[in-house]
Amino acid sequence: MMSRVPFPVKLRTLKRTILLVLVFVACCLTLRVMSSHRPSWLTYLRYVKAKPTVPNTGPNIIQSRTRTVSSKGNTTTTRPEKMTNVTTSVRKQLQACVPSNLGQVPAEADVSKISDPVLKYANVEAGGRWRPSNCNVTSQRLALLLPYRNRSTNLKLFINHIHGFLQKQLLDYVIYVVEEADNKPFNKGLLLNAGFLESEKLDARPCYIIHDIDFLPEDTSHLYQCADKPKHMLGQVRPPNVTKYTRGSSYTWKFGGVVAFLKQNFKAINGMSNLYWGWGREDDDLAARFRAVGPIPVFIHGSEAKYVQLYHTNKDRQENTNKWPYVHQVKLRLHGDGLNTVNYTVISITKEPLFTRILVKL
């Protein structure tokens, strides 16, 4: 006959089990919080150090180890003699590519108070390209896509602001203004599909950011880079001459304004929908595409993700009547609506002093 375990012993065992489970859960939550709240400049530094681009001359830093096998089958690892010199050289290049003095930058919203941007940014190549002169190794090459029509004041303010903002981050970037040249309702999705395809022909880059020109970023520590997952960059917004920021459902679940993604992720979802004629819903459709295919997008809401929203008139704004794009509905049609079905005519591609203008008829 089996002897029964005394009740106090059972109770002590149960308490120990519960305590171990609670400690395990606490450790998991702590690691999750630490990984999701890593400062953006640390992420930048980690990315630059993890993926350096090696100069064409000299030994390849990636192949820094030589594998030799002895007669007994044991494996040893050795390093070439010149490895130290190459590592030091690359490390210096990487240090030159890490931005410094990041922080708040003024965002001027009065066009009468700005000087001529062309004279201000004489260091920018025709077509809106810039790359740091003292940095031969850049972590990413960025293309900025700006959907545009009939907002010349906002465009001038944006161009005046964004060049200085990106240069402080030591990014190799180019700016494309994709302009709709017809009297049809504005179609942001179709316009950005056209801009993406045409920019790839001109200068294919791994990182793309679609950016409404009425949002001016205020903090250079908010890095304009792409990650493995698409990023909604618009965290907190305020009007000009107002100090209080707005944050809520408009910038927590909706996907508009400023979005960063890798080229391969955009191609995997077949770009944006071409069906949204008029204002609204095309950005939410984009988020649904990423959720349907992956990777699921993240929303940046750190203290650095602050923007000034410029005023603009809504005289030519027509809202579309499309319903909310649910993920299961978008998943059924995304492979037949997007980059592979976009229909447009390129009227001209002009290299302006501070951006490349892609004029298209939809």
What can you tell me about this protein's structure?
The protein has nine helices and 14 strands. It is of the alpha/beta class and 362 residues long. Helix 5 links the parallel strand 4 and strand 5 (172-180). The chain starts with 6 loop residues before the first helix and ends with a strand.
Fraction of residues in H or I helices: 25-40%
Q: Count of DSSP E strands?
A: 14
State the distance separating the first and last CA atoms. 87 Å
* Estimated share of beta-strand residues: 15-25%
Task: Note poorly predicted spans.
Answer: 35-86
- Based on CA atoms alone, the radius of gyration comes out at 25 Å
Q: Give the overall average pLDDT.
A: 79
Total helical segments: 9
Shape: globular
| SS-based class | alpha/beta
Written as H for each helix and E for each strand, in order along the chain, the element string is: HHEEHHEEHEHEEEEEHHEEHEE
Q: Describe the biggest sheet?
A: 9 strands, mixed
